[in-house]
Amino acid sequence: MTEQTLARARAGDQDAFRELTDPFLRELQLHIYRIVGSTQEAEDLLQETLLAAWRGLEQFQARASVRAWLYRIATNRSLDALRASRRRPEDRRITQMPEPTRWNEPVWLEPYPDLLLEGIPDQAPGPEARYETKEAIALAFIVGLQHLPPQQRAVLVLRDVLGYRAAEVADMLATSEASVNNLLRRARAAFESRLPATGRERAPHPNSKLERDIVGRFAETVENGDIDGMVALLTDDAWVTMPPLPHAYQGHNAITAFLRGSAERRGAALRLAPTRANRQPAFGCYLSAHETDTARAYALFVLTLAGDQISAITWFADNSVFPQFGLSQTLR
């Protein structure tokens, strides 16, 4: 940033304002998504952040970087949105479905398209960061965040994902360092208890031959209606979850019962279109219409891989997210 660019922006030059803010838009949208758990809401809050920044240019004293200033606005806009909505998904326990292995606490969550991760600069997190960038976008990580109170959620992301120092976070949230440290201590204790157990085989590299083989076999079994073949690709302790529904199924027997029940209720074949979400392989799933070649958008599956197997399937029934993944609402 140059002083001249900032001066031009303050004088009302929108091109100068874009020059200041454009380099950070993709990473800001991802930051907002981590806090609110919704791709669509993150888009709206990013626009609110930019509008607030445009209106607040006179108050920006350049003591902090433009990036930190924008993160401050984006974080507070996200927290305001969570407070205003006070949203809690309804605990819908669908009786037509088999008894789950456990009932999860319902959380609002949408998958995040890898398309929106393109163009984010490969900027190393600050010195305080505890999590790698890839780990901090995985679905399991985002789910864990959504179980934290909003203030704890924001502090953990700012400190342990982005690596801002406690003093910087205290300034962003207009609070004290002691308060930030207290929030972080409680957030870490609650958050780490929800992360998957360590020691599991790492996922294959994205788009590697191993990943393509696993994902290709999964797609084949789904489209052929081969439930036994699909379950054979899973680890013994694999989970199937369907946020915001509380149903969670673990292990081959429970997942087989769930999949068979789902197939009976659908009564139609599925077709898949590959995509990626949260740096994980995913599929847009289409339901074939009777007596026609057209299939309509039905659900989105995100796969979590472990070694040469699948350790989790996250099933999103909301097909309104398809356009964000470049997927059409129908498939011929």
What does this structure look like?
With 332 residues, the chain is of the alpha+beta class. It has helices at residues 3-10, 14-21, 25-36, 39-55, 66-85, 139-146, 150-161, 166-173, 177-192, 209-223, 227-232, 252-266, and strands at 102-103, 234-241, 247-250, 270-277, 280-288, 295-306, 309-316, 330-331. Strands 1, 2, 3, 4, 5, 6, 7 and 8 form an eight-stranded mixed β-sheet that branches. The radius of gyration is 22 Å and the shape is globular. 35% of the residues are buried. The mean pLDDT is 90.
What does the largest sheet look like? 8 strands, mixed
Helical segment tally? 12
Oligomeric status:
single chain
Q: How helical, in percent, are the residues?
A: 40-55%
Using the alpha-carbon principal axes, give the shape.
globular
Percent strand equals 15-25%
Question: What low-confidence regions span 5 or more consecutive residues with pLDDT below 50?
Answer: none
What's the Cα radius of gyration? 22 Å
Mean pLDDT: 90
The arrangement of helices and strands along the chain is HHHHHEHHHHHHEEHEEEEE
Content-based structural category: alpha+beta
Number of strands: 8
- In whole angstroms, the N-to-C terminal distance is 49 Å
Question: What distinguishing features does this structure have?
Answer:
8-stranded mixed β-sheet; 332 residues; globular; alpha+beta; 8 strands
How does the SSE layout of this entry go?
Blueprint: H1 3-10, H2 14-21, H3 25-36, H4 39-55, H5 66-85, E1 102-103, H6 139-146, H7 150-161, H8 166-173, H9 177-192, H10 209-223, H11 227-232, E2 234-241, E3 247-250, H12 252-266, E4 270-277, E5 280-288, E6 295-306, E7 309-316, E8 330-331
Parallel strand pairs: 2-7
Antiparallel strand pairs: 1-3, 2-3, 4-5, 5-6, 6-7, 6-8
Helix pairs in contact: 1-2, 3-4, 3-5, 3-7, 4-5, 5-8, 7-9, 8-9
